[in-house]
Design brief:
This protein is of the alpha+beta class and 151 residues long. The chain contains 6 helices and 6 strands; from the N terminus they run ααββββααββαα. α2 packs parallel to α5.
Length: 151
């Protein structure tokens, strides 16, 4: 499910009604807990949080015209997704998240490399997502990104 939107507000307005509250709350959770420096906008046709060119002029190595992506929120066909690049790039962060998840949600964690899937919006662990967002600064993310892409 792709949502064509030019702004975050437009994206949320186009989300299926049964997910609007969850997507809005997830957005607020991320925005209110990310360290200073990340910016919000539409990225890859999702709500995105990224390192702007003003901080990291090199941009994303796959397309330097794009800012360095970090977190995305999306309403997919069968689930709400949170994409977190830091989890993909930092095994200790991944291990922490996987270990903490059962303390918040009784159902099995549905996760890909960077994608955390929530098939039931009532199972989104907002306090855990808030803590996850606080664990990596812009500087931490740039250092980790460069370590993993400039070998």
């Amino acid at each position: 499910m792709t949502i064509d939107a030019n702004t975050v507000e437009e994206y949320i307005a186009k989300v299926p009604k049964e997910r609007t509250v969850a997507i809005s709350k997830l957005r607020d959770t991320v925005k209110n807990n990310l360290p200073k420096g990340f910016e919000e906008g539409i990225s890859y046709k999702m709500i995105g949080y990224f390192v702007p060119h003003s901080i990291y002029p090199q941009g994303y190595h796959c397309d330097p015209k794009l800012p360095l992506p970090f977190i995305n929120i999306a309403s997919q066909k069968n689930f709400v997704a949170l994409y977190h690049s830091g989890i993909y790039a930092n095994k200790s962060l991944l291990d922490w998240f996987v270990g903490e998840y059962p303390k918040y949600v009784k159902t099995k964690l549905d996760m890909g490399k960077s994608c955390i899937r929530f098939k039931k919006v009532e199972n989104i662990p907002y306090p855990l997502i808030a803590e996850l967002c606080q664990k990596m600064t812009v500087e931490d993310w740039i250092t980790l990104y460069e370590k993993n892409t400039k070998r």
